[in-house]
């Protein structure tokens, strides 16, 4: 049984060094939080044992413990590996020793897709104007929840009919299409709510809570009788799939979503019904 301990002074210094280097290298706040949380959990099990004295077999034992005793998901174990590798490779410069830490295979899951009718029912079941515009903005531009809550008023360009997404995943900016219907709704919203800096303001004029946005979608799905699983990201998946089904070139979809690799965007070809509907099952060709 592995016990939980307070951090020794040396191990506390290790996590401080890791946090500082993450900041220096420009990692996002979310990545820094994930890495530090995973590394902190690892350090809490060491007691007075210095993290700098460990060898590769110690790390392998820990990863095995996460999987067998704690039933960690593949994604969670990947996060633990990333955090530990960062410390030993980047902070301690022991890269060769920990380069090939094994990772569990991630299960291949198709994204959850809402039909256009389901999206319309969800939107129509939101009475609050601000809430409705948040969900419409997510779907109309394929935005991540972090992107919609950080939109500023000046990011909406009605002359060029674009939305400027700033500092998205990987700290990349991109331009997406501003829907005519969305612009009309945003004008009504702005005249009523008078947003200052952030397009969708939360408490004290700050950004709206990401958790609150997820709750809006959850309640709207329930009201609309949509029982599919999925979060705000399912709206992004649906946006991409609906574009593909309408004939939009996948390279444009890649740019609109901000994907580095076309391989990431290609997964939507597996859930698109555009080509599947044209395929005839061999069963239907049997001479009954």
Question: What does this molecule look like?
Answer:
The protein contains 14 helices and three strands. With 288 residues, the chain is mainly α. It folds into two domains: 9-98, Orthogonal Bundle (DNA polymerase, domain 1), CATH 1.10.150.130; 116-276, Intergrase catalytic core (hpI Integrase, Chain A, Orthogonal Bundle). The chain has a three-stranded antiparallel β-sheet with strand order 1-2-3. The chain is globular and about 60 Å long. The mean pLDDT is 88.
How would you name the CATH homologous superfamily of the largest domain? Intergrase catalytic core
Sheet/helix structural class? mainly alpha
Largest sheet: 3 strands, antiparallel
Cα-atom Rg, whole angstroms? Answer: 23 Å
Helix content: 40-55%
User: How far from one another are the termini?
Assistant: 64 Å
The helix/strand order is HHHHHHHHEEEHHHHHH
| Poorly predicted sequence stretches spanning 5 or more consecutive residues | none
Please list the strands of the largest sheet in the order they lie side by side. 1-2-3
Outline type:
globular
Spell out the blueprint of helices and strands.
Blueprint: H1 9-24, H2 29-44, H3 56-68, H4 74-91, H5 95-98, H6 116-124, H7 129-141, H8 145-149, E1 156-157, E2 162-165, E3 174-177, H9 180-193, H10 210-224, H11 232-245, H12 250-257, H13 262-266, H14 273-276
Antiparallel strand pairs: 1-2, 2-3
Summarize this entry quickly.
The longest helix is centred in the first third of the chain and has 18 residues, at 74-91. A three-stranded antiparallel sheet has the order 1-2-3. It has helices spanning 9-24, 29-44, 56-68, 74-91, 95-98, 116-124, 129-141, 145-149, 180-193, 210-224, 232-245, 250-257, 262-266, 273-276; strands at 156-157, 162-165, 174-177.
């Amino acid at each position: 049984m592995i016990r939980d301990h307070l951090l020794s002074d040396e191990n506390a210094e290790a996590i401080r060094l890791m946090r500082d280097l993450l900041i220096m290298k420009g990692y996002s706040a979310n990545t820094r939080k994930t890495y530090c949380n995973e590394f902190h959990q690892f350090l809490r099990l060491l007691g007075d044992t210095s993290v700098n004295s460990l060898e590769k077999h110690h790390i392998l034992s820990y990863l095995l413990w996460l999987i067998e005793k704690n039933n960690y998901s593949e994604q969670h174990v990947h996060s633990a590996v990333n955090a530990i590798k960062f410390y030993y490779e980047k902070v301690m410069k022991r890269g060769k020793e920990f380069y090939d830490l094994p990772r569990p295979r991630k299960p291949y899951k198709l994204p959850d897709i809402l039909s256009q009718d389901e999206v319309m029912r969800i939107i129509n079941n939101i009475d609050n104007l601000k809430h409705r515009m948040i969900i419409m903005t997510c779907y109309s531009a394929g935005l991540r929840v972090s992107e919609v809550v950080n939109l500023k008023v000046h990011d909406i360009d009605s002359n060029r009919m674009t939305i400027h997404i700033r500092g998205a995943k990987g700290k990349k900016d991109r331009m997406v299409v501003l829907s005519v219907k969305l612009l009309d709704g945003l004008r009504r919203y702005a005249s009523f709510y008078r947003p200052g800096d952030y397009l969708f303001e939360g408490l004290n004029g700050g950004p709206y809570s990401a958790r609150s946005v997820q709750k809006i979608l959850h309640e709207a799905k329930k009201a609309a009788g949509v029982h599919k699983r999925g979060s705000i990201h399912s709206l992004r998946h649906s946006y991409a799939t609906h574009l593909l089904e309408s004939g939009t070139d996948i390279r444009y979809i890649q740019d609109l979503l901000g994907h580095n690799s076309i391989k990431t965007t290609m997964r939507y070809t597996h859930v698109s019904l555009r080509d599947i509907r044209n395929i005839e099952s061999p069963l239907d060709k049997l001479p009954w």
